[in-house]
Fold each of these.
Amino acid sequence: MKTYQVNQEGFYGDFGGAYIPEILHRCVEELRNAYRKVLADEGFQKEYDALLKDYVGRPSPLYLAQRLSEKYGCKIYLKREDLNHTGAHKINNAIGQVLLARRMGKKRIIAETGAGQHGVATATVCALMGMECVVYMGKTDVERQRVNVERMQMLGARVEAVTSGNMTLKDATNEAIRDWCCHPADTYYVIGSTVGPHPYPDMVARLQSVISKEIKKQLMEHEGRDYPDYLMACVGGGSNAAGTIYHYLDDERVKIILAEAGGKGVETGLSAATIQLGRLGIIHGSKTLVMQDEDGQILEPYSVSAGLDYPGIGPMHANLAAQKRATVLAVNDDEALWAAFELTRLEGIIPALESAHALGALEKVKFQPSDIVVLTVSGRGDKDIDTYLKYKNNPEIF
């Protein structure tokens, strides 16, 4: 039987590893040696689980969306990560990594963020635990996610607006890595997705796997079986998708559908559909699929969604696509916006733009009436209201 888990060297098939500057070797090696021991420690697990329950509000509901199910001719359950404290799945990972950092004796936390949800989650946990927090965010994203910037600052974090490149997630990550290089001894870098050098992709996936752990239990309660026919999630770096599928990776009964950001269309040059358009390369310390030109220079991605606006992809997801374990669909801006308004009007749930891409993939799959589908709503749409308002009266979309 195939396995899709990470190996001892940090690779998922041909993807992964740790390609880092020499100055960070000690930091990454220290983390690699610590993370599994700490995550498996009984004291850590007890504190982590208690915070997920009493602070985050887990388990998040698995909601049967009746009207959406009728529309698509199957049974659709929504995994409601939007109902977590801070409004997204990102808090699951932030709590785990800051607890780990504290056990490793680190005093200063840095993070990157695109849509702002990971930045808010990290700032939230740092406020809870009394840790210094610096969040790097592209200037473009600072402007389109203003509310999340204000939330981070209110929580006591310093938000650094990055003005290099196209001033989005890639550039924020670059600056966070530069900071880490300058302060390797006392600083812990909380990466928000399943990207970066090993052990980050595996560690983030493990911390987010609470999502699929809950899905198994909740489906048993709802349906008398612990697996769906389809799992669906949006994928940029890939953290909510990794959490959604983690306990089902080797269960071939379950079809995996990942929705990436098609932008204006994969043929337009304005896209973030990395699995569709990427070639093997190295970005932010990991060998994966990267959008690049003939000379290997990274191309600037585009998406209406700040959280999916990234030219790489987590190595787990690159491998799942290469092994044909997952079907990856490019969902364009207009399709995602349309799907967001559809969910809002059918179910009274306003999703994050990132989650809307997963919803936009529903139109692209032929379901049977007996199919059970679990789709993760990775975050709530409060942060995207300004974007939604720009489009709500556009006759080309609605």
Amino acid sequence: MRNTQLLKIAKDFGSPVYVYNADTIVRQYNRLTSAFSKVKQLKLNYAAKALSNISILKLFNSLDSGIDTVSIQEVQLGLKAGFKPEKIIFTPNGVSLEEIENVAKLGVQINIDNLSILEQFGTKHPNIPVCIRINPHVMAGGNTNISVGHIDSKFGISIHQMPLLLRIVENTNMNINGIHMHTGSDILDIDVFLYASEILFETAKNFKDLEFIDFGSGFKVPYNTGDIETNIEELGEKLGTRFNEFCKTYGRQLTLAFEPGKFLVSESGVFLVNVNVVKQTTSTVFAQVDSGFNHLIRPMLYGSQHEIVNISNPKGRERFYSVVGYICETDTFANNRRINEINEGDILAFKNAGAYCYSMASNYNSRYRPAEVLILNGEAHLIRKRETFEDILNNQIEIDVSIKEKVTA
């Protein structure tokens, strides 16, 4: 996306504003499918939690993608966006049996990650196909908050509980048509991923009627120039070859499934903010912007690094700034970052803002959530309006709060 186009979007739609580039999403989708071109049956289920705007979901549906969902609301969004039920997989954690049953009624692929619900669901609905989420006890991911395959994780059924799992399946005579794992996000070492995959292959041998094996995702994207990323092409070559070998020994061609989210949308997004104040203290120069962790929480929550560019002054001399928000707490986007000279009124662009940014936004401090814009075929389209004061009050109920008797100490 060109600076001139981004500046025009900030002017036309106001700031702060999220901007996504459809071309980048298509590029990433094609890159992943090309990396696994040796696999006869590949299914990519876009992880809707990364960015769930219905226009983005419709874009993935047009690419013949599937969709990975974690709540019944995401399932309903997927159906609304045009996904057929068989293109949707439901991979929740810790939800009620009632929610899983309600999703199953919609014809969606169910993925269960605990023995209690597995036994209850299998007893009541033995004919409904179920995928099982395995915890391989492999530590992977760039932050403890996004590492979900280790031994202390709440996600998945431990591989050490396999005898009990198999007993439940045998006793209920339920239909297991898939197995799944997800080790974590920001995976750098593909050997760790391949090691976990071998655990999944070994587990798959226990089930004779599988249709697919889902390897999760967590591929790392580069956050700045020169940053390292998951080598998708090497992973595709190695895992694709190993998967084909497994299918031969299994005796049937299975589908290799992934559920990428960040990999597909992160680089497509930029977050545009306006600089309200440049504040010099005794030791720091702060660039204070018209946003905060209510709009982009990842730096405070995960310590994530988003490259920040001054698109109003891209050729200015570089200086060091701490970029902070307007929330009434410590609210830091970047510390002591080298950025082209910033003046009040400049527009800053946060890169890699497509994944887990708007979807984690809130109304903290009673601030409005931003607008979202999609650049499609070179044109900017508003795909979510900026909230208003009426949105803040929506669903609140005003009651008579007059106190009839004074409270005495």
Amino acid sequence: MTDLLELTPFSPMYETVRRPLYTETTTSQALYLPVAPPTLGSAGAIIGRELYSGKAFIYCPFSAFGDGLPGGNMIVMGDTGRGKSAFAKTYAARQIRLGRQVVVLDTKEQKEREEGEWAALGRSLTGKSPVKFSPGGGPGASCINPMDPAIAGRRQVELVRTIVELGLGRTLDEFAGSALRIAIRRAHQRAGDLGRIAVLADVAAALRAPEESDATAKQRTRDELLGDGLEASYVLDRLCGSEEDATGDLTGMLDGPTSLGVDLNADMIVFDLTKVPSGGVAMTILVAVIAVFLEEVWLRPLCECGAEPSRHERVVVDAGSGAWELGPNRESGCRRYTQRKRILICEEAWHILGVPQLAALLEKFLKFARGYGLSFVGLVHHLSDIDDSPETQAALKMADTIVIYSQKKAEAEATVERLGLPSWTADHITRLRRGIALWVVGEVIYPAVQHLLVEAEQHLCFSSGSMTDFTSTQPDAA
């Protein structure tokens, strides 16, 4: 390096030469302490960099859990085109490289590709196409049966009741709820006698044909029991249709045997809901059914080595109390049972948070997320898209990480007020550039985290092709 002392003052070389930096620990502290929050450690997915400090920003809810982060759930919000989806896609891909398993509820269609935004990423990572749902069914469409035996009895009753209440637009009274429980039991019995699995149409039929013995057990007449469940049967008819009427809202999606071509061990499973009308009862009910299906089937206990808990040895850790933990699995060579970590990503999460019944279902889901080894990531544009019901507020409180991309002034102020953030963050959020977000991790605020993509990720994360004016590189036709 050129010696500064050898140069003549005011010469061009003197003016532009790189000066040495003399500093002390106290000087560094005085310079960086006010603007640089503590790091989240070096374990996890690389997000990008924290602009104020210049440090790499690394985040993982499973690595940071317990160290100032009480849970692994995240809400991502911001105006359209600010980088929410690009962040979510690269975050999912980078977490998969750390051994995580990801499920995506994809509700954003790319018209030019005639598929959801996550389809390309899912195929690139797993080689598998999305699980598609389409009203009316059709080639390649999938169906989930809410009456599937894979869903435990109690949860099945809760799920069918939720379907009826969402279709009805209000909660069932005790008489209707009791009639529905009886009908579900009878539907299973009658379908079993015919050698098949019950479907929702069997529940509707059982509601319209109650048995005398069931009425007597409830100290009701048969006509009274019929009246208790008649409205619920009409709701199921409207939703599922019939052989004579195939116009039901759920026809081809929830009205038949389960036909999901899902590899539950795949690193990423994408549920393509882009053909289902957004904001309608079909979308709401479908999300509720998928959530329960995932809880009962996908979130089964599984070690990172791929073995179930029963394949691991029990190791006594306290002889006095008999307390034990799951230790090695000699077959796989695993030293200790470690629950496989999973991530559930929901695009346009207002489909869930905007409906009190679904928000209550999600709250219950998230409350036990730590026991499942699960992190929920919900993407929304604005909190104003979501009502202020107690169920929604309870679900929002379960999010211990908040990522906020740029919003307009009114939305930013409403977001800050609703989340209880410092007042200065409202103006700050409006000034954030594309790809830069304010992060709130537990109680710590990171004002400007820049999400960085590598070249290989860009074509998988780009979701604005319809609005982009690309210059053609093809030669003009002769």
